[in-house]
Amino acid sequence: MNSVASIVLNRSFQLGLLAVILIALATLPLHYQGYNIVRLLNIFMFVVLTVSWVIFSGSTGYMSLASAAFFGVGIYTSALLGDKLPIAVVVGIGALVSSCVAFLVGALTLRLRGIYFAIFTFGLVELIKHLTLWWEINMEDRRGRLVVYVENDIIFWVMLSILVATLLTAYFIRRSKWGLALQSIGENEEAAAHMGINVTLVKVITFAVSALFVGASGAIIATRWTYIDPGIAFNPLYSFMPVLMAIFGGMGRLLGPVIGAIAFTYLKEELGTEFPELYMLIFGIILIVAILYMPNGLVGLIQRLWIRGFRRQDADT
Amino acid sequence: MLEVNNINTFYGKAQALFDLSLRVEESEIFALIGSNGAGKTTLLNTISGLVTPASGNIEFLGKRINGLAPHIIVEMGISHVPEGGRIFNEMTVRENLEMGAYSSHAWKIRWGTLQQVYEIFPVLKEREKQLARTLSGGEHQMLAMGRGLMSRPKLCILDEPSYGLAPKYVEEVFRIINSLREQGITILLIEQNVRHTLETADRACVLENGHIVLDDICDNLLQSDHVRKAYLGL
């Protein structure tokens, strides 16, 4: 094999590279200010949402559209408790509350298969949104509320920590016995039960774990928004985006959803500023092309080109 | 070892098993024969906990198991190799086998078990890293049986292991079933290949429309007029 490739594929090289990237990212707020940080923050958030979605839906094949519900629960936790407790505690509570909601919903609905589960989880977002709205209007005579201010650097570091925790969890689940169980549920749930897997428990717990990170990222990002209301907090866009980003990146490897989220968020920002009227249209076209011509996503495409490149080099020598 | 007493099983309003009883003794090969729709698979699914009987009870090693969840029944030592294998096609042969050892006591000793399974099925060792969907029909069944053994069962339930296989593999499957019994594993077998089954098994029962019509040692069944006429075409 080619020498460049053997270095890139080397395990300690990969770990070293990861460490360098991580340190570079963590020290970034010390050098840069303003828009670049905000942009990265946005990217981190979508990577967290997408990877969390993939942890559960990617392997089991249960398409969840509940991300926005967990995200919104995190946001509201921040709005309600942000001025009373330290921000790290608020983020922790946001994660736990989201996770509890996911646990309850999962226990009730994870018997539903396929499209029924997707529709129910989508309905959940609307349900929580309208309940909150009803409560605010009728019980508190207001709409929306202010969120406490937190410095950008702190938001950045908290979000980065959530990101690292999400990636580590996804990585270890993938390599564990639990990951095998999830994969087998996705392939054939009945056979998985034959193997002695408590399929309901595995599904519900994984669903709850994936909601942890979504809730946490909602709780921290809310501090950037100053003002929130149910329509902002429970925006269904946050349910659909992770799905699209995961499909765009490819779900075969952990890197897929990460790259998908980064590329998609970047594109979204660029197109949004360059072609504000047309950008949703361009977006749609990119997505259709991606689904038609990149069945394994961006990462699948890169892999294919990579392998083809080697064949050619081997043939040349 | 396994005792099924007067169970009735329904699918909605349709009754599939009627007041059905049978006993499987330790270290024997017990076969269930019957035509399509007789209730064979339903009976096996009832035993392994995937279907709950409306009445009656099932005991395994003296403990009542009906009403328990399938994963607990696996843990107690019953392994069910379903019809058609139900292999995880997008996972490798090795991963499929590891899945078989999912129950907690088998998981710790899975590497040892894996070597034993590879000894019984050398072809699986050769194919270790391949995706399961690339296996031939016969290898597929070998993998399903190997996966069933990974949980270190005391009782192995095999649902039509020779279905759709080439004659060469059918011989192989029956040879392996015999060798499992020699290792002390009790076998509960469903088969449509009636002659082969009755020659291999110790005892068998004949299931028709959810009722057991005959229950005897295989030598007697091979002589029975009913079996000869209905199942052997003699």
Percent of residues in helices of chain B comes to 25-40%
Q: Major sheet of chain A: order of its strands?
A: 1-2
Distance between the termini of chain B: 34 Å
Greatest chain-chain interface? A-B, 16 and 24 residues
Termini Cα gap of chain A: 11 Å
The structural domain count of chain A equals 1
CATH superfamily of the domain at 1-27 and 36-77 and 192-234 in chain B: P-loop containing nucleotide triphosphate hydrolases
Task: Describe this protein's structure.
The complex is a heterodimer of chains A (317) and B (234). By secondary structure, chain A is mostly helical. Chain A has one domain. Chain A is globular and about 70 Å long. Chain B has a domain of 112 residues: Rossmann fold (3-Layer(aba) Sandwich), CATH 3.40.50. Chain B contains eleven helices and ten strands. In chain B, the strands form two sheets. In chain B, strands 6-7-8-3-9-10 form a six-stranded mixed sheet, sandwiched between helices. In chain B, strands 2-1-4-5 form a four-stranded antiparallel sheet, covered by helices on one side. The longest helix of chain B has 16 residues. The chains are: A mainly alpha (317), B alpha/beta (234). At the A-B interface, helix 8 and helix 9 of A face helix 2 and helix 3 of B.
Write the layout of secondary structure elements.
The complex is a heterodimer of chains A (317) and B (234).
Chain A: H1 3-9, H2 11-31, H3 35-60, H4 67-81, H5 87-109, H6 114-139, E1 145-146, H7 152-175, H8 177-187, H9 189-194, H10 199-225, E2 227-228, H11 230-233, H12 237-249, H13 255-274, H14 279-293, H15 297-316
Antiparallel strand pairs in A: 1-2
Helix pairs in contact in A: 2-7, 3-7, 3-8, 3-10, 3-12, 3-13, 4-5, 4-6, 4-10, 4-12, 5-10, 7-8, 7-10, 12-13, 12-15, 13-14, 13-15
Chain B: E1 2-11, E2 14-24, E3 29-33, H1 40-47, E4 55-60, E5 63-64, H2 70-76, E6 78-81, H3 93-100, H4 104-108, H5 110-120, H6 122-126, H7 137-149, E7 155-159, H8 167-182, E8 186-190, H9 194-200, E9 203-208, E10 211-217, H10 218-223, H11 225-230
Parallel strand pairs in B: 3-8, 3-9, 6-7, 7-8
Antiparallel strand pairs in B: 1-2, 1-4, 4-5, 9-10
Helix pairs in contact in B: 3-7
